[in-house]
Amino acid sequence: MMYESGYNMGRGNKTWNVEFVLLGLSAQPGTQKGLFVLFLMMYIVTMAGNTLIILVLKKDPCLHTPMYYFLSHLSFLDMCYTTTIIPQMLSNFLAEHKTISFEGCMAQMYISLSLGGIEFILLAVMAYDRYMAICHPLHYNTVMSWRLCMQMAGGCWLSGFVNALVQTVFTLHLPYCGKRIINHFGCEVLAVQQLACSSTFVGDAVMLGAGVLILLTPFFLVLVSYVYILSTILQIRSAEGRRKAFSTCTAHLTVVTLCYGTAIFAYLRPRSHYSAKQGKTASLFYCVVTPMLNPMIYSLRNQEVKGALVKVIGGKCKRRTLLCF
């Protein structure tokens, strides 16, 4: 099956009319209608939950602290991430011809790779913020200045965009030799590169390098931060204090497990072990499920956010730098 579009990609003396076909999650019309309703509801919940988190963090002056500043970035990031993927999925559930232009496919790949990389680095920055708050509370307000917080957030976004640009440019120049059917619900980089008719050695090297820089390095920094955090918590003499500290850390650790776990499983396996079914499942977790769950996890596990969701706290707030979410 091949569809043609008006988008022409010239390479040398060749001009190709390129349009990809997305197989999606199911070929059964009845199942697709059910999936449309399911993912539409998930998209609405994701957008509503993250929008609410951003509004609450902005409105409540008690939450104008570095850790909630990074949380607002995470919520905005999740909204952008799901908007890159789910509307295309919803359209294809109802469309007879589930196609996407080469140009649109590369754009979707670039944006999703950018946002995914930004989230990996941002989670490491959030872990560092909690490390400073718990292990060096006396220096926290001095070190975690607003200028540094904005620089760290900007660095996350810039790193994600640069990483995605390298991978997308490489994928853009792969020869596809007439292969147009992507066994995925979106233009996921591994699924697209499976269509290449040339050796994937260079592609594997590019993916490995990106995985080490954007995925494994932030994950390692998160682990190191939590080794120091847990060591400090264990030195707290009060059993109630230790219990409270551990409980407030579970939200961030839950998100870290969901985000890094599925991404490592999807991207850092040998290319020969790639499975379209497993790739779709992993992508659903970090593209759809995790952004939907993040607002619930942070709001339910964080008393300050939970309280702000119920009412706007009046008066002056005592800054709680020892909370880690």
Short description:
This protein is mainly α. The protein has helices at 29-59, 66-94, 102-135, 137-143, 146-172, 189-193, 201-234, 239-267, 276-301, 303-310, and strands at residues 8-11, 14-17, 19-22, 99-101, 181-182.
How would you sum up this structure, described in words?
This protein has 325 residues and is mostly helical. It is built from 10 helices and 5 strands; from the N terminus they run E-E-E-H-H-E-H-H-H-E-H-H-H-H-H. Helix 1 (29-59) runs antiparallel to helix 2. The protein has one domain: Rhodopsin 7-helix transmembrane proteins (Rhopdopsin 7-helix transmembrane proteins, Up-down Bundle), CATH 1.20.1070. It has a 3-stranded mixed sheet with strand order 4-3-5. It has a two-stranded antiparallel sheet with strand order 1-2. The chain has helices at 29-59, 66-94, 102-135, 137-143, 146-172, 189-193, 201-234, 239-267, 276-301, 303-310; strands spanning 8-11, 14-17, 19-22, 99-101, 181-182. 71% of the residues lie in helices and 5% in strands. The longest helix is centred in the middle third of the chain and has 34 residues, at 102-135.
Write the layout of secondary structure elements.
Layout: E1 8-11, E2 14-17, E3 19-22, H1 29-59, H2 66-94, E4 99-101, H3 102-135, H4 137-143, H5 146-172, E5 181-182, H6 189-193, H7 201-234, H8 239-267, H9 276-301, H10 303-310
Parallel strand pairs: 3-5
Antiparallel strand pairs: 1-2, 3-4
